Amino acid sequence: MKIVFMGTPDFASGILEAIVDAGYEVAGVVTQPDKPKGRKKALSPCPVKEVAEKAGLNVFQPVRARDPEAVQKIAEMGADLIVVAAFGQILPKEILLLPPLGCINVHASLLPAYRGASPIQHAILDGCPVTGVTIMQMDEGLDTGDIISVREVPIEDTDTGGTLSDKLSVAGAGLLIETLPSILDGTAARTPQPAESPTPYCRMIKKDAGVIDWGEDADVIERRVRAFAPWPSAYTCLDGKTFKIWSAEAVAGEAGLRPGEFALKDGMMHIQAGRGQIVPKEVQIEGKRRMSVGDFIRGYRFVSHSLT
Predict the structure, then answer these.
(1) Is 293 helix (H, G, I), strand (E, B) or coil?
(2) pLDDT (0 to 100) of residue 1
(3) 3-state helix, strand, coil in the chain (%, to 5)
(4) Which of 42, 157, 186, 285 is deepest in the core (most CB within 10 A)?
(5) What is residue 127's DSSP assignment?
(6) In the chain, where does DSSP find H-type helix?
């Protein structure tokens, strides 16, 4: 049995590693093109490409997987099954129909909830106590195919988008390896999804999603801080500079401040939200490194006591 793997970020790289370690024949790996990174904008491979090259696998990086040339290249890999995990492009019908066993997706939510490109972040934003991974048979819809298997993963109060992604990658890898034998021998049970999802579609996150609205309640802002770490991060503006908040606590109490205004107390910043306050723990002002808020306060000369 030949498997073709399609994926791109860290979440997917752990799943590819599990497939390789389990001894399955990987006929090829399809991932996104290298992208410029850092100040020098040097081209950098994605995590899946790094894993694939380390394992000596054939790597294909189409700009558009739906282009006829790309479809033909993937067809030539001769897959019996295509495994997809956070590839980053919508697959056309031509690819879905290529392998005899079709395409399956390792999706980072408990479907039908949180269909789309950013289920991990949205589960944190919504304050969910639990999420999980779903192995599903792909169809032409957006995460609407039949469910094959699921595994729940609790969301801790300290989880960020990054830490939860790591947990779900491990869970997804384990669930996939447990589920693959039944898929390959044709005995896997499939449960159709309802037409409608109980949650809105999770669109791809853009950088401006991290902008903090100080009119929101403190607990909402605290979840935004966690959901968007490490990217795009939650940020605001202090004295005309980008001010990132990497971790924070939401606390009760009013101090007669307007949303966005802050007071310095006992070496901490108390930032007024719509309701409650945000107390940052780790911050980063534009042009400087990440640091504890105590170190930041000791070394920074404040021009104003208001964030915009």
Answers:
(1) helix
(2) 86
(3) 25, 30, 45
(4) 285
(5) T
(6) 10-21, 47-54, 68-75, 93-96, 119-125, 161-184, 218-227, 293-299
Q: Residue 60 corresponds to which tokens in the numbers above?
A: 């294909």
Write out pLDDT tens, residues 239-298. Answer: 999 999 999 999 997 778 999 999 998 899 999 999 999 999 999 999 999 999 999 999
For residue 308, is pLDDT > 80? Answer: yes
> Measured over all CA atoms, what is the biggest interatomic distance in the chain, rounded to whole angstroms?
67
- CA distances to 48, 105, 145, 148, 235 from 242, rounded to whole Å, are 31, 37, 42, 45, 7
pLDDT in tens, 56-77: 999 999 999 999 999 999 999 9
9 touches 86 (CB < 8 A):
yes
- Per the confidence metrics, is the pTM higher than 0.90? yes
Q: Tell me how far apart the alpha carbons of residues 58 and 100 are, in angstroms, rounded to a whole number.
A: 21
Residues 12/18/21/24 CA torsion (nearest 10 deg):
-90
Assess contact for 78 and 8: CB atoms under 8 A: no
